């Protein structure tokens, strides 16, 4: 099927918008209405429910939701060293696959334990290599498991973990890192573990993986076997993508267009998706109009109004209701993310990276099943 070229239109030309007023919770990870906070650490998905176990002119309407109380700002939580800043910068510009985790059993962060994990993972990879799983991709070598400081901004956050697998690419003699995985929790709002479980379990809400599929799958399998946990692929619903687009548009000073990609129904022949690109200045103007200047929280209603404003503008010009199609991919100056859980951090701001990671932590935490 032929995919149309990017559609770029100025918002200043048209008023109003028919949109996805996504009030329904069907297909979303939360069970009660959520309020997200937009503050120094960014917006988060907040559900005030306890968890005890795992298993034309642009205008805004009145908001009626009540946001949660804000938490400490980033500057109050932590100060970063040069090593921590360099660690955070390593996450920028790479395509990551996101996964969520159940608590890890008997994970220890002592240097001797990390060294032991490195050896067992290397042995696991060597065994898989003998099965011929990596022949067509790469030749994996040794693996290392180390702490990765800088992502733990909250008092209850465990120190992040970096897993690296080295190897030789096909027809190459030089060994290099072919796969990276980062386990993290950034600014956890609450501890998902019972007090009696704290000695035996460590909770990392999320894992990011960058590398060949076969090697990535091997790392996931090793984690599940070694720590008796589950590694679950994280996908983003249309509502979650729309919320990210609305939320992160107001964070970045660079003027990068906001792009929304909608999946066209299969009944429509000759067209697979619609790529809608809007000037960042216009989007920021819309964003400021729906925001209350004295509020530091960002709500569902504000996200709905933002997406609705963009969609109705498109309808006025092309007479196409984007609200009837699922939002498939979003891209702005901070992040580019798709429904399949793949994303790339495109911001140059370390603070904005942490805001994204905090939001991903909240998404994963909200998905942690209650037994």
Automatic annotation (TrEMBL):
Pfam families: CENP-L (PF13092). GO terms for cellular component: chromosome, centromeric region; nucleus. Its main location: nucleus. It is found in: Chromosome, Centromere; Nucleus. Keywords: Centromere, Chromosome, Nucleus. The keyword Nucleus applies. Belongs to the CENP-L/IML3 family. This is Centromere protein L. It comes from Dreissena polymorpha.
